[in-house]
Please model this.
Amino acid sequence: MEDVKELRRARLLRANALYEAREYARAAEVAQESLTILPEDAEMRYIRAAALTGCGAYDEARAEIARIRAVCPDHAGAARQEIYIDRAEGKIRTQIVHLRAFVAMLEERIAAGDRPDYHRVFLASAYSLLGAALTLTGESAAAVEAFLASSRLETTREKKATEYSNALFASNYLPAGQRAAYAELARGYGALYADVRPLSTPADARRGHARLRIGYISPDLRTHPVGTLVRPLLTAYDRTRCAVYCYMNGAEDALSQEFHAAVDVWRNICGMDAAEAAALVYGDEIDILVDLAGHTEDNVLPVLAHRPAPVQVTGIGYFNTTGLATVDYMLSDAHVDPIGTTDPAFTEEMIRLPHSHFCYMLPEDLPSLTPPPMERRGYVTFGSFNNFSKVTDEVLRLWGTLLERVPRSRLLLKSKLFGSAEGREIVAERFARCGIPVERVEMRGFGPNHRAEYADMDIALDTFPYTGGITTCEALAMGVPVVTMRGASHGARFGESLLINANLPELVAKDPADYVQIARTLASSSETLCALRMNLRSILGRAPLTDAPLYVRDVEAAYTEIRERFVRTAGRM
Model:
């Protein structure tokens, strides 16, 4: 009997190790070999179900879950695995129904004292999955609360911080009217690291480097919007004044390799814990550490919480406060944060660059320009390829007004959500509530050639208060004018800054009525749309937004200023 138990345990560990290594097919095989001997082994069957899900064999995985429930009806792992299959199949509505039932079941068991520690692990996971699903469907406030619940249930600082970051990121999708209730939320993230002792001290002002050491830390130094926007800082910096160190937190690709070859020092910190990565940065004697991720996925803010550099900055990859007292500055510009404006929710001081806070270098492989589609269709197609989670009901209502004011016009939208029938159903219901005729909307899923799809759009409509970034740049590069609206906060003014720096201030609306009017005026003139189609790319190419040398000079001048400020302050101390 003991030999059988040991054999089972060894096979269970083997199957699980293969699953964790993402060798799903082999994990499923090993699990099946064991199940031929012990067919009622629910844990082994659970691993096989998970491995089959990883292989995309969803029907087989569901069959395994049914077998688990026949032996163990209350198996929490089986319930969670069913939810993973729902997600993989794009059954977003079913997934949310199953998640809410799973949460209720787990909370009931915990309240009854049934293995509370065991079930809290599953409950934390369930709330995180629920937050992600609700974010996708546009239920942002409920998503924030779900992520916060997950954070409270997690037992380690690292996992608490991950879920808190998820909550903060989701809060950016909130409509303007709901944001005040979460204004101080980021400070709770900072509180998670209040007891961490900083590595760097004012004594580090005495370091005497021949060149200013700039460290860039991010999971996105790769083919990614951040990788696109940070390119000039890594490939065109002043090597007589600056030494650039990069700390990549993730898998590398061809763009990573280009950056690796361009900078002075490249390190991959993937797999290191925050303290270990911070010690590495501190050992490199970085003068200014620049975080490029904020509260996005796989972020490195826990590293900055250890203050491995005397001056720390965040920017480019995130547009809101980190909540960390150890992050001194946010990279901004005079349009995103006009002089005289302040936001008490931010824990960082603003660096107001004179032009743009990021640079968009026109890709060399842009598709050829085509005439606006209204020429062949006879009607105007408005559109938005922004992340659909940014599309609040307020935005939909305004777009509905625009469709009403421009007869026969249509709306083209693109989202992961539209790739499934349940996703399209949920969005169609929102359209109906917000006064948008569903028959005038094309809901398009993701495709491989997203820039070429701008050939199907006449006028792009920006979202608000969470505006577009790289998406707006790509629309302009493809000759599609973008209408944005001036916002009342840091993140809500991104669209305005981008268009001003693209030399297109006339596309910035001052209010909703002006937004509709600008879009209607563009839609009324096929000649204007044709001229913009052919000329926007060259206009963009001559604008501050794409002027890499100007941008690098602005940023490096700011680095010099904040470094000198630190040295002066340290000297007084």
About this structure: The CA atoms of residues 376 and 456 lie 11 Å apart. The first strand starts at residue 212 and ends at 218.
